[in-house]
Amino acid sequence: MEETLSIIKxxxxxxxxxxxxxxxxxKNNFQIVKEKKVKLEKKDAEQFYKVHETxxxxxxxxxxxxxxxxxxxxxxxxxxxxDNRKLMGSTNPxxxxxxxxxxEYGISIDKNSVHGSDSIENAQKExxxxxxx
Length: 133
Ligand code: CMP
Fold this sequence. Notes:
Blueprint: E1 2-8, H1 10-14, H2 18-27, E2 31-38, H3 42-48, H4 58-65, E3 70-77, H5 80-88, H6 101-105, E4 114-116, H7 120-130
Antiparallel strand pairs: 1-3, 1-4, 2-3
Bound molecules: adenosine-3',5'-cyclic-monophosphate.
Adenosine-3',5'-cyclic-monophosphate is lined by residues 52, 57, 61, 91, 109-110, 112, 115.
C-alpha cells in the first residue's frame, strides 16, 4: 500500500465541499488514514510549495493556499499517488477529464479545489510537513 498527501483547498472548503470530496476518495477505494483542518500562515504555504518558488505564480499560489482553512489528508491504497492524480484530473479544471474532481469542482487553475503529491519522494516530504509523529 502507498500513501499520498491530499489537500482540499480554500475554494472547495469555502463552498462546503469537504464531505462531498472525501466521499469521492472513499468511493474510489482510498482510505483516509489521517486528516486535519488547518489554516496555514503564508510562510507555511511558501515552505510547502517551495518546489515552485521560481515560478511566476508562486506568490499568488502561497497567498491563496493561506487565504482560508484547508483539509489535509493522508490517503492510502495501492498506487495511491498516481491513482489520486488521475482522480483529481489536470491541474487546469478546463482541461480536466469528465468525472475528475477538478472538472467537477474546480473553478480555475488557481482555485482547482485539490492538491495531490506528484511522486513518492514528494508524498513523503508533504506527509511529514503536516503530520510529524
Ligand atoms: P497544485 O497541484 O496544488 O500544485 C501547484 C499549484 O499551482 C497548482 O495546483 C495550481 O493550482 C497552481 N498554479 C497556478 N498557475 C499554474 C500554472 N501556470 N501551472 C501549474 N500550476 C499552476
